[in-house]
Every structure is written in structure tokens, then in C-alpha cells.
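User: Okay, second chain of the day. Same drill as before: sequence in, C-alpha cells out.
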Amino acid sequence: MTERNETKLLARIQAGERIESPEEMTDDYRQNLVHLMTMQADSELAGGYGYVPWITKAPGVEEKHVVAQIVKDELRHATVMYGLLADLGVDVEAHVRAHDEAFTMRVEDDADIGTARITADKRVNIFYYPIDTWADFVFFNFCMDRGAGHQLEDVRACSYGPWVRAIEGIFKEEKFHIRHGEFWVKRLAEDPKTHGEAQATLHKWYIRTMNIFGRPGSAKNVLYRKYRLKLRDNDEVRQTFAREVAEKAGAVGLTLPEWIPQWDRLPEEAQIPG
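Assistant: Same drill. C-alpha cells below.
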């Protein structure tokens, strides 16, 4: 019966149908879906927490308002994602209670934790790093939110209907975050007083973002594509991101560092940021 249900599910997915309820899922499909959506939900929450100090530290009233809006967006995204998980039977309140304190934990800026997760939640590894300066805030949005956007492109066409519909609003708000980052990247890069800081900060966050996409041809990625929870290989998404960042950075006189992959240290699966 289980094998028959799997065959039926895959036939529906391959025909382009969307799955709408837990009753239509096999256990394997549900487990992988919950895993991916938990990564996004935890990352949205941890990311929002990391931005909070910049509501008071941002340069000027207008920017304080923008940061507050970004925090609100990230917490709304987390709420939406946890709601989807609750619909699948996940005890969201217990999950958040178990990890809420850890979501605020950050390592030192000069720490090198590779691609490891060092707490039990499922946030993307990059959210362990602190946002210590305004340039950090800017380039985190410029790199990480852009990386998130490329990952979420696949979600917009995935096989789980409620996730597809929820992601549209999230995607639009992430685009706003990216545009805010672009505005400030240009401003910092073109000012001789801040150009050096801009170049150094881009170097840091670009390398960290390149590490989140996972290994090429991984077994996990093959499984996700079978269920149409992802559409592309990990490295295809990474290279699309890298080309776009190179173009945007080059337009304002910034250069990208060479990213030297350590394949054995990269996660098998791409981590979905938010």
C-alpha cells in the first residue's frame, strides 16, 4: 500500500498537480516538506531577532523605520511558515519554546564555523554570525536576501500548494529588502570614505552566502527534486546567484573574492534562508 501511494503521489507531481493536504502525502513527502519549511521558519525568526538592535542604531529616522519594517516582515514570514507547519501537525509552540533563546545566539564575527549548525534549531548557518556594523546590515541584505530570493524561486513552483501561495507575499517583501541593500551598497561603495569598508564587508558576506547552497548533485537535492520541492541542482542556484552579485557589485566598483569550495564541508542540502 505504501509503495502504491508513493507511485500515485509521484504520478500526480509529475503531471504538475499540487498537493494540498496531509491526507494526500506519503510519510516521506511530509517529512521532507516539514524539514524544508522548518529551515525557512527558523531562519526567518532568527534573522528578525538579529536585525532588532539596528532599529535604534540605524543612521537616521527614515532608516530606523525601514529596519523596523524589515524586522516586522521577517517575523511575519516566520508566523506564516510556522502556521503552515502547524497545519501539518507540527507542535510549533513547543518547537519555538525549545529554541527561542538559542535563536538570539551569535558567534564572534571572526569565527569560522564553516557550514556547521551549532544549535539544535534548523536556521541557516549564516544566521549565527553577528551584524555588528551598518555595512554588515547592508551587505547581509544585499547577499543573503538575494540568496534567499534565488532559493525561493523554486518554492514558487513547488508541488505543495499552501507553500506556493504563502511564498508570494514573502517573496515580494524579500525583494524590498534586496532593493534596500542595493541602494546602500551603491552609497557606501561610491563614497571614498566608506569604499574600503564596503569592499571588505562584501567579501565577508559573499563567501558566507556562497556556502549555504549545498553540494552539487547531492542525494538530498535529488530527492527534493523528485518530489518537486526543489527544481534545480544546488550548484545551479549558487552560480545564478554568483553571476547576479558579480554584475551588481561590479556596477558600483566592487569586486568579488574568489570562492574556493571545500566540498567536504558544504552541507549536502541547500539551506533555505528567509
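The radius of gyration is 19 Å.

User: Thanks, on to the next one.
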